[in-house]
Design brief:
Layout lengths: L9 H10 L6 H11 L4 E4 L6 H13 L12 E4 L3 H14 L7 E4 L5 H9 L4 E4 L1 H9 L10 E4 L2 H6 L3 H10 L5 E6 L5 H5 L1
Parallel strand pairs: 1-6, 2-4, 2-5, 3-4, 5-6
Helix pairs in contact: 2-3, 3-4, 6-8
Bound molecules: adenosine monophosphate.
Length: 196
């Protein structure tokens, strides 16, 4: 199977080509069609399997269509447990979305607040965040979820292990009920079932 068979927009296929990906990985082959069809998804995938592109490509494809007008909060929110992973995800968005004009940024712990506050005030398509820092911004009333369409939970099992369950639940509850949700986890056993 090639990336051409996945019904991705040509502008994204150019991004895939620029990344040097010859063919989709197993998780990409399995997850991308469901994600593009708008379904909720739980997927078991370890780091190194190509899971980032498995959710970034459907997210980018969704954003190529215009969103709701009237507000400018993020349309896609990607939650991930660590600052390092958030950096890898924004790199993936930058590379795969190289030929799009989407606005994205991250809000993570261990970094200064003012640039993140500016990011949240400006029009934004994709927000990548670690749960604790995002909750801080929510507590200051700085996050506009009114046009959020897609929530991605990356490394959901690690977020649970790191004690982020309550934060993730609070964030999910603050987003519109009709949103699409994609959950990626190394394991789908145990507590992760409850979160799902
Ligand atoms: P991830 O599991 O998302 O952390 O991806 C692991 C590595 O695989 C990253 O360096 C990606 O750039 C790379 N990668 C992702 N998808 C593909 C693909 N279809 N073909 C080759 N490399 C890929």
């Amino acid at each position: 199977m090639s990336f051409q068979n996945l019904n991705l927009d040509p502008i994204l296929l150019r991004g895939v080509e620029a990344c040097g990906f010859a063919e989709p990985s197993e998780i990409q082959r399995q997850a991308i069609p469901h994600a593009l069809a708008g379904r909720d998804l739980m997927a078991s995938a370890q780091t190194g399997t190509g899971k980032t592109a498995a959710f970034v490509l459907p997210a980018l494809q969704r954003l190529l269509k215009p969103g709701a007008s009237g507000s400018h909060g993020p349309r896609v929110l990607i939650l991930t447990p660590t600052r390092e992973l958030a950096g890898q995800i924004t790199d993936g968005i930058r590379q795969l979305g190289k030929f799009t004009r989407l606005r994205f940024g991250s809000v993570v712990g261990g970094e200064a607040y003012p640039p993140q506050q500016r990011l949240l005030r400006a029009p934004l398509d994709i927000l990548v965040a670690t749960p604790g820092r995002l909750i801080d911004h929510m507590n200051s009333g700085r996050v506009d979820y009114s046009r959020l369409e897609l929530l991605v939970l990356d490394e959901a099992d690690r977020m649970l292990d790191m004690g982020f369950l309550e934060d993730v639940e609070r964030i999910a509850a603050a987003t519109p009920a009709g949103r699409q949700t994609l959950l990626f986890s190394a394991t789908l056993e145990g507590n992760i079932q409850r979160v799902a």
